[in-house]
Structures are given as structure tokens and as C-alpha cells.
């Protein structure tokens, strides 16, 4: 969902919105933990965007999933949006465990990344240090939750925001950029 919004904002405003892996709850054990939240704000946003949404019965770890996305973003960045959309559906529609290597392999099966590379990275936590660096960078930006948006590598916007809020913020960035160029 965040990925779809980011794509729309990038296209509409000619800005770059950065994705950063951020393991929100590294304390969640393998197998997950029971979820009692309803996610009403996310459900409302999904309905507005005409996206399917089902609050998961369990919260699951995301470390391996983040590594899979980092791998895709490095080797085949054009396919990253497709993988992110598949992961969204896996979590919020199908209630799949995206920490499961088998699920990740299936989500990436047509990615053109050799299966042995995906398997090695996902099973050995090869990119776990990169997630740590990303989390530290996010914390430096003041990011403490998801989604958080880094726009043109200049401004961080935390949490779920209305589209008109993003429109105002991005318009202000554009005005500041134009003013700086005029000087």
C-alpha cells in the first residue's frame, strides 16, 4: 500500500521517495505472535485506494523479507515494486508468513535472480548488517515506525498521512528548491 502511494506521489510531483528496510519489531519470535489490533487507519486507506486488506491474526518477523527486498533492489531494481506488492498481499490479504524461506522463494520465483542466491542470502542472514545500517540511518532521521517517507533525501514524513498533506509538503519542497535555484 505504501509502495503504491509512493509511486503515485513520485509520478504526480516528480520527487524521489526512498524505501529503507526497517525491521519494526525485531523482538517478534519465529512463528509470530497473536495480533489483537484492527488497523482501522490502514483499512480505511486501503479502501480509499481500492486495495484488498485483512488485518493479520499474527504479527510475524520481517528480517528475511527485508533482506529479500534488498537483494532484489540491488540486482533487479525494476522488479522491486512487484516484489513489494506481492509482499503486501502476502501479509495483508493472504496472511502468509513472509519470513518463511519457501514463501519468499515463491514470491521471487520469476525475479530472474538465481534461486541459489536468494536461498543463500535469505537463509544465512547475509544482508542482516545492511538492515542494521538502514535502521540506524532511519533512527538518525527520526524514524521510529512504518511507514515513514524520505522525500528527495531531504525530508522525513512519519506515519500514515492524508494525500493532501503530502501534496502540501511536496509543493513546499518544490517551492524551496525553486527559490534556492533562483539565488
Plain-language structure description:
The protein is mainly alpha-helical and 183 residues long. It has one domain: Glutaredoxin (3-Layer(aba) Sandwich). The chain is 54% helix and 8% strand. It has 8 helices and 5 strands. The protein has helices at residues 2-13, 40-48, 63-75, 80-92, 101-107, 115-124, 128-141, 163-182, and strands spanning 17-18, 33-34, 58-59, 148-151, 155-158. It has a 3-stranded antiparallel sheet. The protein has a two-stranded antiparallel ribbon with strand order 2-3. α3 (63-75) packs antiparallel against α4 and α3 packs antiparallel against α6 (115-124). The mean pLDDT is 86.
Keywords:
8% strand; three-stranded antiparallel sheet; mainly alpha; 183 residues; 5 strands; two-stranded antiparallel ribbon; Glutaredoxin; 54% helix
Amino acid at each position: 500500500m505504501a509502495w503504491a502511494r509512493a509511486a503515485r506521489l513520485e509520478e504526480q510531483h516528480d520527487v524521489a521517495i526512498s524505501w529503507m528496510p526497517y525491521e519494526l519489531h525485531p523482538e517478534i519470535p519465529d512463528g509470530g505472535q497473536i495480533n489483537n489490533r484492527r488497523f482501522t487507519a490502514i483499512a480505511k486507506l486501503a479502501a480509499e485506494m481500492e486495495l484488498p486488506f485483512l488485518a493479520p491474526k499474527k504479527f510475524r518477523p520481517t528480517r528475511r523479507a527485508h533482506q529479500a527486498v534488498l537483494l532484489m533492489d540491488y540486482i533487479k531494481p525494476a522488479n522491486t515494486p512487484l516484489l513489494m506488492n506481492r509482499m503486501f498481499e502476502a501479509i495483508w490479504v493472504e496472511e502468509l508468513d513472509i519470513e518463511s524461506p519457501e514463501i519468499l522463494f515463491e514470491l521471487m520465483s520469476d525475479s530472474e535472480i538465481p534461486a541459489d542466491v536468494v536461498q543463500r542470502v535469505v537463509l544465512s542472514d547475509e544482508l542482516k548488517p545492511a538492515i542494521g545500517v538502514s535502521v540506524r540511518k532511519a533512527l538518525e532521521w527520526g524514524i521510529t515506525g512504518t511507514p515513514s517517507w524520505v522525500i528527495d533525501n531531504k525530508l522525513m514524513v512519519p506515519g500514515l498521512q492524508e494525500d493532501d498533506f503530502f501534496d502540501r509538503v511536496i509543493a513546499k519542497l518544490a517551492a524551496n528548491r525553486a527559490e534556492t535555484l533562483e539565488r
